[in-house]
Amino acid sequence: MMAKTKRATNRGFTLVELLLAMAGVAVLLISIAVTTIQLTNMYHKGITIKSINQSGREVGDLIRRDGLVVGQGEVRFVAADTQGAGGLGRLCIGSRAYLWNKPENLRSNDPSAAVRYNSTGDAIILARVADPLGTFCIPQNGVYATDVSTTGTMRATELLKGQADLAVYRMDVTPIFDRNGDRAFNISYTLGTNQGEEINTTDQTCRTSNEAENNFTFCAINQFNEIVIMEKAS
Q1: Is 0.85 topped by the overall pTM?
Q2: Sequence-separated (6 or more) residues with CB below 8 Å from residue 58
Q3: To 10 degrees, the CA torsion angle through 51, 53, 57, 60?
Q4: pLDDT digits (tens, 9 = 90+) for 70-108
Q5: At 155, phi and psi to the nearest 5?
Q6: Please, is 28 exposed, middle or buried when counting C-beta atoms within 10 Å of its C-beta (0-12, 13-18, 19+)?
């Protein structure tokens, strides 16, 4: 009787107990994996939004400083879809010009769709160019200049280079006041990521995670506003 009792106490786990233990471990591993994926997506989303906001602030600072320097200089704006503009948007503030390609031209498989720097062959995303005569915003025989170089006196600088794949979705210039030689403008511009068709162009928002063609984790778009005040020389 004693021997039988000892053998009974040395029994291992039953098959049901092993299955329950394995199921518990599997649930734990799945929970860890799901949490890790969610945290990773949140991290990448945050980095994308930070890139957009940082780029927008840097562009705004340049525009504001250029506006302060020019005094009573001219502000000219040419939309990217203007006839003769070649798909290149333009904002001319005094001796500086800001030039950008439309997002669809940057995404096109046709290399000739986007205007490119003649010195490097790279597509222009958003360039700041030395343009003392404002020639980029003044058409000649109905055609605007598209010869942009990173060298020489023009010294074009790509403002969005090295950031995430970004593009300028929209820019508008609205006069605020013009009094006794003092002028002010509101310059609004929209920057966003530029992968595929992830942006709803109707309302300038990222497609939600349940929409087709969404890339929600790596998509961000934001509108920025900069007030440029030009005061006459005292």
Answers
A1: no
A2: 159
A3: 110
A4: 665 678 999 999 999 999 999 999 889 999 999 889 888
A5: 50, 50
A6: exposed
